[in-house]
Specification:
The chain is of the alpha/beta class. It has 21 helices and 29 strands. The protein is about 30% helix and about 20% strand. About 0% of the residues have low confidence. The protein binds iron/sulfur cluster.
Length: about 600
């Protein structure tokens, strides 16, 4: 079985392990081979071809988890497209943008999606996994063209070699934009615009930015920032557009509208590629997808393109039939029917009818009650008062109806969390969470992050750390505002399970505000639904049963979902289609019963 060994040099600490422990305990080394050796940089180096399975003992003995010995799928016979150094992350195969199509990339975080995009953009010249005299051996385009002969990628690299590919890229973490740019929305988009005034007007109108053009980039909301970033990407003259998580911070209505817009970009001269973890939107937006699988930080493999419908089902199944690779132990299943409401538990909090004036915004809530063990999804458009309602209960604002309840609050923007400090290490922030080793630290794979500061973390890592910090706090009510942002599909499902188990074990309750309908469906037992007019008035109703809550919410949006026959996952119906009309008539907008 082919194998690779990954050395995380920043973790390797030969003094701390008593002097190159792995070289001393490796059975291959003891047999006279130099599988593990002292490298020129003073850290360990590995000759992969000399390492055998029994050397796992050396890998496991490293006290700093600096080594990974990975068995690759036996079918993988070719060399990687790119490898970061001799014992670094390896990417196998590439996705290919196709003119006239929106192609999706679906896979875990840390599995090489950004590396693939950098190669496709011509920013990273791949080395085909070779190293010569310690130097990376970059492959010239002609060699790449030869390697991909007869495939879509051949034509793509020919165009890239001839300077005919211009890529425009929307990065993942849009909240970094205000740190890099000072000025108004108009100034930022004006700077990005290479397509003239008429296109500027059209794009800003389609993305509903016309009313905020004079506002400072530093004060607009996450959803507005996301749409500004999409507009800036689209206003560049390019023929390959790449969007890394274009749905974060957008509500479901905005997600569908952005999906329409991105689809409209693809024509015979333009290709669009999208990474997103909202499966409903990825399904709606793309025609083809590549699945990426492997091991986080170790290696990533790009599958052949599949039709989106089949590809998402394969992803949920966790098994790639053609490649004969199982990349998840269990398949992910969805229920066509709403979960049965759990018998009412002991009451945790009640609130009387609320009416609150917040500047020009009126927030009202009908009276409601939360029981111990409840995990309640909160659905509504952006700007409709969800966070204000949550903050009201959290006693963050002066007035509260939550009495003496102790509340743990994870805000939408992670840097606003009271435990956030860019200079603190993860270990410091999670001190109080160490008691939850089996419930939080191990399943969320937080231990390897302990030495890093919060400022060094990726979006997904920071989200996991802050959620763990908040769930570990002693409180009665837990409020998680958009916890799915930057988490991949697996992490979203895991987070659902952890949240439910934590509430059951603690006998507490949790409210979760999120726009990923699949995540909310998977996580929640009840729903609070917001209605009203964004920016003017918001009305909170519920908690309802899942079935009643989904129907109310989707009725307000005029959207219905059908079920995929195979996986039972929800899929958005085209407005006015037979299914859409039938479901509206029967009043079953989401669940079959
Ligand atoms: Fe020591 Fe681990 Fe580095 Fe080997 S990899 S030298 S065991 S710290």
């Amino acid at each position: 079985m082919p194998k690779i060994v990954i050395v995380e040099k920043e973790k390797c600490n030969p003094e701390g392990c008593g002097g190159f422990l792995c070289t001393r305990v490796s059975p291959s080394n003891r047999a006279g081979k130099e599988a593990f050796y002292k490298d020129e940089d003073g850290k360990v180096g590995v000759n992969e071809e000399l390492v055998s399975d029994i050397d796992r003992i050396a890998v496991n003995k490293c006290p700093f988890q600096a080594l990974k010995l990975i068995n690759l799928p036996s079918e993988l016979t070719e060399a990687p497209i790119h490898r970061y150094g001799k014992n670094g992350f390896a990417l196998y195969r590439l996705p290919v943008p196709i003119m006239g199509k929106v192609v999706g990339l679906l896979g875990r975080n840390g599995i090489g999606k950004s590396t693939a995009v950098k190669i496709l953009a011509g920013i990273l010249q791949p080395n085909l996994g070779r190293e010569r005299n310690g130097e990376e051996n970059k492959a010239p385009y002609d060699e790449l063209i030869e390697r991909f002969k007869g495939s879509e990628a051949q034509g793509y690299f020919e165009k890239l070699r001839d300077g005919k590919i211009v890529l425009s890229y929307k990065p993942q973490q849009v909240e970094h934009i205000p740190k890099a740019f000072k000025g108004s929305v108009r100034e930022l988009l004006g700077k990005a615009n290479e397509k003239g005034d008429a296109e500027f007007k059209r794009v800003t109108e389609v993305l509903q930015l016309a009313n905020i053009l004079e506002r400072d980039i530093g004060v607009i909301s996450g959803g507005e920032l996301q749409r500004v970033a999409i507009a800036a990407t689209v206003l560049k003259k390019a023929n390959v557009y790449f969007f890394d998580e274009p749905t974060s911070y957008l509500d479901i209505k905005q997600r569908i509208s952005v999906a329409h817009f991105l689809r409209s970009l693809a024509d015979e001269h333009t290709a669009v590629m999208v990474i997103d973890h909202d499966l409903i939107i990825l399904d709606y937006m793309t025609e083809l997808i590549h699945i990426m699988y492997g091991q986080e930080g170790g290696y990533g493999i790009v599958s052949q393109p599949k039709s989106t419908k089949a590809g998402i089902n394969v992803y949920l199944e966790g098994y790639l039939r053609e490649e004969n690779v199982r990349f998840r132990d269990q398949k992910v299943q969805f229920s066509v029917h709403a979960h049965d409401a759990r018998p009412s538990d002991e009451q945790l909090v009640t609130w009387p009818a609320i009416e609150k004036q917040l500047g020009n915004f009126t927030l009202t809530a009908s009276e409601g009650r939360i029981d111990k063990h409840d995990v309640i999804g909160v659905l509504g458009e952006n700007g409709i008062g969800k966070t204000s309602f949550v903050k009201t209960l959290a006693r963050i604002e002066a007035e509260t109806k939550a009495g003496a309840l102790k509340v743990s609050y994870k805000p939408q923007y992670l840097e606003e969390a009271d435990c956030f400090s860019a200079e603190k290490t993860v270990g410091e922030v999670l001190q109080h969470a160490l008691a939850y080793e089996h419930q939080l630290i191990a399943p969320l794979a937080l231990q390897p992050l302990f030495e890093k500061t919060l400022g060094q973390l990726s979006g997904g890592e920071l989200q996991r750390v802050i959620i763990a910090a908040k769930l570990a706090e002693e409180a009665d009510l837990y409020l998680l505002d958009e916890p799915s942002a930057y988490l991949d599909v697996e992490q979203r499902l895991l987070m659902s399970k952890i949240t439910r188990e934590m509430m059951a074990a603690k006998g507490k309750a949790c409210l979760v505000v999120d726009h990923d309908i699949l995540f909310i469906d998977y996580l929640s037992e009840k729903l609070i639904v917001f209605e009203g007019e964004p920016g003017k008035r918001g009305v909170a109703r519920g908690p309802f049963s899942m079935s009643e809550g989904m129907n109310r919410f989707l009725k307000g949006l005029n959207i219905t979902f059908r079920r995929d026959e195979e996986s039972h996952r929800p899929r958005v119906n085209k407005e006015g289609s037979v299914k859409d009309r039938e479901q509206k008539a029967s009043g079953k907008l989401y669940y079959a019963s």
